[in-house]
Here is the input.
Amino acid sequence: MRIKKEELQTRDYRTTHREINRIFPNRGRLLEIGSGFGYSLDVWKRFGWDVVGIDPWHVAAAYCKRQFDIPVHTDVLGELGFEDDAFDVVVMFHVIEHLPDPLQELREIFRVMKPGGRFVCETPRYDTLMFKLLGRRERSMACPGHIYFFTIESLVALAKKAGFVVDRVRVVGRSMSLRRLIYNLGIVSKSSWLTDWASNAASDSVVNRVPIYINARDMQRITFRKPEANKPDV
Here is the structure.
């Protein structure tokens, strides 16, 4: 289930692929924090990037190595001993909300990035109409493991504390199967019948094969930049 979900959602980052590839036409070294089974890393690799991942789940790390021949570390970033200025790009999709100390992680990302490098971070957004209407019934609130809840302004402020400047802010949606949509509706409506039905849907059924893109403007994807030395930011 999660493998198909990851594979499907690589299409959601096409605008970011184009943006980063335009900024770095000669490519470079890219780190993904929370790389999962490696489908996102594989896309970057096919664009010509030298890629490496971090994911604490040994099963996912082993799958990525076996399926895509991409190295994935299972320790946290601060324990891996990367040199200063080691990466041109760092991406982190739906990870920062799970971290016990996001500012510390951002400072470590800043350290391992080259001056002029880009950091792309995506996380749920909690200054939306959907959140105001649903409150604690909003689907991201029900996701296990979420510790921090960011608005665009609070995420930008946190990243600036770590030294970053903002390049681009996008309000984005997500591709999902019809089954996943029904499951999310069950979570929001607190309908155990819907969640049970979606959970038990056959893997080859129509609800699992049909992809849907929904943009409820409830997620933010922000591209940050590490300033270059002796160059003023404008």
